[in-house]
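request received
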Amino acid sequence: MAMQYKLLHAKEDRPSARRGRLQGVDIPFLVLILMLLAVGLIMLYSASFAQSEYDTGYTSSTRYLQKQGVCALIGLAAMYGFSRLPAQLWSRLAWIVYAVGIALLLSVLAFGESVNGARRWINIAGLQFQPSEIAKFSMIVLLARLTKHYGEDAAVFRNGVLGFGCAMLGLLVPLALEKHLSAIMLMGMVGVVMMFVAGTSPKWLAAGAAAAALFVLIYISFMGYAGDRVTAWLHPEQDPGDTGYQILQSLYAIGSGGLFGLGFGKSRQKYLYLPFQYNDYIFAIICEELGLVGALLIIVLFSAAIARGYWIALRARDRFSTVLAAGLVTLIAVQTVLNLGVVTNLLPSTGIALPFFSYGGTALAVNLGEMGVILSISRQRNEPKLQEELS
Amino acid sequence: MAKPSGKKKRYERVRANSGHHSRILVVTAVMAFLAFVPVSLRLFDLMVLDYDYYAALALRNQTRTTTVSATRGIIYDIHMNILAGSQSVETVYLDPHELKQAKEDIGEISRVLGEILDISPEWIAQQAADTKMRYKQIATAIDADTAAHIRHFINSEDVSGIHLEPSTKRFYPYGSLASQVIGFTNASGVGSEGIEASYNTFLSGIAGKVITTKGNNEMDMPFSYEKYVQSIPGCDVVLTLDATVQQCLEKRMEEAIARYDVQNGAFGIVMNVKTGEILAMATLGGYDPNAYLEVYDAKQAQLVEHLRLGYLLHPQGSEAYEQGLQKYKQALQNARLKQWRNRVISDGYEPGSTFKVLTMAAALDSGAITLKNHFYCSGSSQIPGRAQLLHCWRSTGHSSQTTAQALQNSCNIAFANIALELGGDRFYEYVKNFGVLEKTGLDLSGESKGVFFDKALVTDTQKWGTASLTSASFGQTFKLTPLQLVRAISAVVNGGYLMEPYIVSEVLDAKGNTVLKQEPTVMRQVISAETSKIMCTLMESVVTEGTAKNAAVAGYSIGGKTGTSEKIDVLDENGKPTLDKIVSFVGVAPMDDPQYIVLVALDTPSRSTGIYISGGVMAAPTVGAVMSDILPYLGVARNYGAEDIRSQSVVMPDLTGQTSKEATASLKDLSLTFLKVGQGDTVTGQIPAAGQSVPGGSQVLLYFGEPEQLRTVKVPDFSGMNRQQAADAAGKLGLYILVSGNPSVEPKVVVTGQSVAAGTEVPTGTTIELTFADLSIRD
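response:
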């Protein structure tokens, strides 16, 4: 017994010995995230400089890179900070975070800035800020907290469906009022994955998916404009100047990249042909410049980071950390897959950004902060459990 | 709780995770791997399998083709004078994006540019407001002065966003000269009308291209795809037209239009009878191709302006406004089409008596008549097979005439009889061979052919009577184009050969290599060389003896035929024929070896001048004047007969210092005599001064031992004086007269023009050229 204890301890002490600046975090995951961030910033510069020149009247090619760079620094600071906080802190703060998330969403409805007819931004001290990013985090934290709370009972309907469902609806309703469809979809999918991990029976999830599909069908048949979107998705060439324009330009960019691409910085579609070339559609420019080889390498990076993230979840010290890490990784994974699907026209167009690549300061900073939380979980995996965790 | 043991902890951890373990593995498999499979396959599909398709679409999407216009070829006359060329001009455009970036004062810029370019400042401001654009053209084809003006403004005010770029503009150095033949290029630089249109493919060259990738707002890319296709400059076209001959023709026609108050313009042509080369082709009532949209005819312009002001009276959008606008546009278009029309090739007209040349040539050639035939004219005649009594223009009749006299007198009754001798079948065959039924094949677009009788109407006289045949014989009730007539008459005098006329002699590429060269083309022989010779003699007799005496030019043998035709198909507002007339004369010279044919037709001379309206009175002297200008220029030898001496001018030599005897000898060579003034031994003064022209046979004043007494006199109005009266009037004032036009000294031949206007002060001894014509000639 004692022997075993010692051995265990000795084993657990080894990471502690590595305690330095990295605090024993999972190095492969950290490296993968930093690689994604570095490649992301470089490609953002390439994809945005023509637009930047145009928007600044040919005075600056780095307008978007600069803003994104600042947010990356903020995000890295958040990542470092969160990686040092114990993950269990979020369990205690879960309801508060959740309340903040709802409050922020409601405040958007009240004071938000309207962009393209949808209110999604609020201004804090002159800085634009997208609260839905916080809302996503708050949902994941609360669902993880509930998983821990329900414990072995997470699978029963009252908890596994109603409990989780109500928690999600608390955020999804204000988002629906914002008409923030892409966030609803994203959070819905992340929530479903988390419920699955938490233990909710797949039959309920399947029923939920069927209900969602039905809802989408009704939605499409009642909303004419969404119907147009479907036509634009399936037959973009029917209206190349208007509804099909965005996706056709994206396909031109991707297809003309070929195996090895036109070369870094040499995209032509970014010269104002492809709208949103530096945020939602940045991957099309990557394909054009780096070709299939470059695009697949980036996909491999994402795939590796996501896999490693789930590996961290698997090895997390407690149930809360496991579900939290799985949720956060799933958030990145779903965004990535949906973005790539839209850009390649496998899915109809929605406004989902590519993590670490697309222009968008809030998303980048929050994503990096979330990676900090995962790193914190990875750091804890060999540490003794805190007293309260066991209670 | 007690401090947990290691076993407890591990248990707890396994407990904590065991429920999730397999589920996380499923999620990992799906989210980290499976989810990326469709996207990866899709990428492979797009980027490898469909690469060619998308690469092509992308390139088409991203490239702009800029046309590099080819230099348009030059149109030259036969002596390589430029008739149409391209001039360097500049285009002004704004870069609204740049203007906005530089925060320029749009109001001020619009005002200044509007002033310099004479366009509305509001419009310029509108163009400048489109700030996403980088190219807004605001003026094209501005000249160097205006461009300098704009450059000065840009530099002095340091304005960014206004740019100039070079381009070309078509220009026509001779203005309205031969405008319908040369044509013009439209706003997009494509030849419209005339040579510019018919030879557009040669002149235009092939535009080059620059294919280059451009951003969606036309911005340049640092890494772009570029491809150049060199432009091929247009070919130059050398015409057979001679600008000098054209100028002579147009000048004389303009004089005639003014003198006879011609209402509806005039047309004329000068052609080489042996080759078919067109030396000049004019339609007056024309336009200046440098500004082809303007309406040049004063009456038409007034009508158009009247309609324009008319519709503007109505409120915009009202029915009256729209109708008025349509009327105005229609009138404007009609006026333009009329002035652009080349009547020489496009419009048929009734040739009248000029056609008798062909009838007679046919009759002589076929043997139907000989020179020995006689034709009787009593003033009117009942022609068999013709219902109406046929009247001759001379109601008292020509009594008995020889064949030659029939032509000289232009007697319709004689010609009706000649046609009956010839018969419808032969007549129709000759008419056909003379090319009256077909286009001439001139290499100029817009050619039409006349309207002739159906064959049966002329040939089947049993059924249709002889009215058509006889009317046709003297050139009435059908139409042909001036060019068709001139070609047919050329065949009559050139030995019988019908030529294909041409106006382009050569097409040269930019390096000067000949691309196309036209040679004379004989279509067929219509009459024998002998008949042709006879016809030359007969036509010359029309000028020397007949209705065309006014066409005579001293020193040249000229032949021809006059014509006056009523425009039977032009009706007045009551539906009655207007009796408007086209008077014409077709002349050939020199008759011993015909080289050039000149036709001038004046459309509707006004009755108000009081001058008798006929080809002999109006068109013949005009053609004579053209001949007297162009024959010396074209190098046709002049042979003065004894009677022509007064029509030939000689240059007064300097006789100072010569004795009376020496002076007599010097002047004799020049056919001059002198009157001696003073008692000295040698000449000390002379009138006219050395170097001045004096008519042959004149008497000059030589002063011996005393200075000449120079004084100035007022030139009298000679018009209406006959030869004797004019000589007396000039002699009294110490002026000399040089005779041109009708050489006859008969009293009915009177002055119709003088080279120095009445009332001008001139020194004594000045020579004044007087044009004589017989205004009583009928044809």
